Every structure is written in structure tokens, then in C-alpha cells.
Amino acid sequence: MKIVLASNNQGKLAELQAMFAPLGVQLLPQGTLMEGEAPEPYGTFLENALSKARFASERTGLPAIADDAGLCVAAFGGLPGVDTAYYCTQFGYEKSDDNNVRALLEQMAGLSDRRAAMVSTLVAVRHPKDPEPLVAVGRVAAEITTEPLGDGGFGFDPVLLIPALGMTFAQMATEVKHAHSHRGRSSRLMMALLQESWLAGTPLVAAAPKD
């Protein structure tokens, strides 16, 4: 079964393709099939993920999966949320992972409340008008460090400390990150939904990782 992944983010693509491998489906990045990106005018991860999934399915004629994810900082009332990817631009920086990290650390300088959460919402549709989209949400609590730690991952990984493990996502081996990350959690939930709803009777290629 071919499913288009409604994203052009290379880090996200690599993570999701690896985690969905046990399903035996062919997950195709939308950039290889179409041009353009869906509008994301909404204030919630769910609404934007649904918009992206519908857009990709309509343009490609294939079932689609979309992820909308972001950082929710307690001291900022849950922001930047859906605007996470462009967080640094509001402070005069060009859009990039490094600048996002720099801007976050600058804005949190002197704050004692370092609590945050990374949230991933995955939505899958069989076609653009699918009345029963599959929805899976993964959330992981973290603390914002005072400086980047580790060389792996992408996005805010170098400053997202998972207290139970004593490491940032950027310090973790790939399999450890997948087991504990927000996207790892939403992906495992989505895999179970796909197996139950779309792929009933089709055996998994390999066992999915567990928490």
C-alpha cells in the first residue's frame, strides 16, 4: 500500500519512514509526487494536520498521513505551539533550527520555570473527503536546558531534556529517541490504528518498538 507523507521536512521524513517500516507500507514524501504545501491557518495541531493530509491526498490521489508537531512552553502559555517552526522569525532571525534554539534560550534567560512539552498529532485519510480520519496524538514532557547538549536529532532536540533519562533528545541514540519521543508515541498509536482500520489481516513486517 502506498501512502503519501504530507511533509517536506527531511528530519521528520526520516523518523516517520523508519518508524512505519514494520507496517510494510510504502511511505512516499509528497515532494516526490507534487508541488506546493497545504495552508496551515489554524491554531491547533489537529486542524493543521488534517488540512495537510487532505491537501496531499487531493493532489496525489493517494491516502495521506500528515504530522503537525510543536513545542509548548509552560512559561509562554503553551506557545509557540503551531508556530514552532517559525519561532525565531518573530525575533528578527532567519528561519532555521539553530536560530530557533538560539531565540528560545534568549527568551527563557532568567526563567526558573523550564517546563515544556513536545506534541505530535498524526492524521491519516484514505481520500480528501474521508469522514473517518485516523488521529493519533503523542506528548512528552521535557525541560528546556540553558544550553544546547548533544549533536543528534533536529529542531529543538539539543535543548529538550527528558528528566527520567537525564539526556536531551540530541544526546540519545536513534532507537532510544524513537522509544521516548512525541513522534515515536504518536507513530506507534497511528500504526495500531492503520493496522486495525486499513490493513486488517496484513501481518506486520517486524514488531514495533515499545515505550
What is the chain-wise order of helices and strands?
A: EHEHEHEEEEHH
User: What is the CATH domain class?
Assistant: Alpha Beta
Radius of gyration: 17 Å
The CATH architecture would be Alpha-Beta Complex
The CATH topology label is Maf protein
Number of strands: 7
Distance between the termini: 27 Å
Structure description:
This protein is α/β, with parallel strands linked by helices and 211 residues long. It is 29% helix and 21% strand. α4 crosses α5. The C terminus is likely disordered. One of its GO terms (biological process) is purine nucleoside triphosphate catabolic process. Its cofactor is Mg(2+).
Descriptive key words:
single chain; 5 helices; about 30% helix; XTP diphosphatase activity; ITP diphosphatase activity; Maf protein; 7 strands; seven-stranded mixed beta sheet; alpha/beta; nucleotide-binding; disordered C terminus; about 210 residues
